[in-house]
Amino acid sequence: MRLCSHVSAFFLIAAFSATQVCGQNKPAGMPPITPRQIGSGMAKAAGAAPEAQKELHDKVVRLFGLKNLTQGRAGAKIEATTVAWAIIDPKPARVLHEDGALIGEMTALGEGGLQVLVREMPNFAEFGYRVESEGMPRMAGTVHVEHFDYTADSLPKKGVPQGRLERFEWAASKVFPDTVREVTVYLPAGHQPGEETCLMVWQDGSRHVDPNGALRASVVFDNLIHQKEMPRTVGVFIDPGRRPNQKKGTKAANRGFEYDSLGDAYSRLLLEEILPEVEKRCQAKFRAEPEAWAIGGGSSGGICSFTVAWERPDKFRKVLSWVGSFVDLKGGHVYPSLVRLTERKPVRVYLLDGENDIDNKFGNWPIANKQMEAALRYMGYDFRMDWTQCFHGSKGMAPNLPEALRWLWRDVR
Question: Structure pTM?
Fold first, then answer.
């Protein structure tokens, strides 16, 4: 039976590849089909013309990948709360929950053994699954469902002028020698050389400034500044340091050391190196009062932001932290005690976490953030804690970012 499966897969690969080479019907830049579109197409497939069925078949194969489908490596695809599974197998297949419960029988689509299942799942569900064919496991994986809707202030609006982004690479650090990092600077629309503005520094900057990314901070800045719900602000989006021999886009080797360590090293990187370089390159000028300086980040970038303000409240007095790693990665679990034992500092703190955040050997992220919340409340800090059902990452922060920035900047115009 395994031999037949491999033979069928071989002929299907050859036939499909020939169709791709000869047809060349796919428009350049055509976006891939989505799980919801697959579900809609499958509902209509039974009564559809053969051409329509073949078109849907080919789109599904492109999405999952032909080799992945034939080799049992095509993991589930997720769109919002819709999950799609697909496999190529000559025998009927089904998808099972890790506890053995049936999620659904897969439906054949066209010829060649392609089978598909699309199901709606509860939001914030996380579970293991396996795909079986005649009782034999073909593949397994994990589904992680987490969906939030953006508010209008995270989307581009007609008539709202857009800021511009300028980028440079910083490879001359003395604080963190032998590192290279990208810096992206957001300049608000109409920014003039020498104009005094507020400042907000972001860790893991490239992903957060991306207007098509999860957080879309540059879009939120455009909208809130235009609506006068936050002051004119230059955003400095900084990536963690990577080694010179590391490729761009790979996990930065120095991230944990820079972000999770306590002490003043990262604040010195900002004040002695990055910010003076931004002022020089972009002809920026930051307002002198510390209430006009903010810093933010998620996970290790969140504790890093708090550390900067903790060490230098004479410069930074606004902190934005989501799913902050106030756990024992490099000693950050002591912050709740330090906050309670140290004279209150003039710092405003916004925290966000989710009940589904990480629990591992380094600590429990929700508990750690609850301890931070309790310590800040006990000491009378100006703080806000928002709780969601989010997992670790930026999805929970994204829809809350506009309101968080309004709250942080409410005293500065």
Answer: 0.89
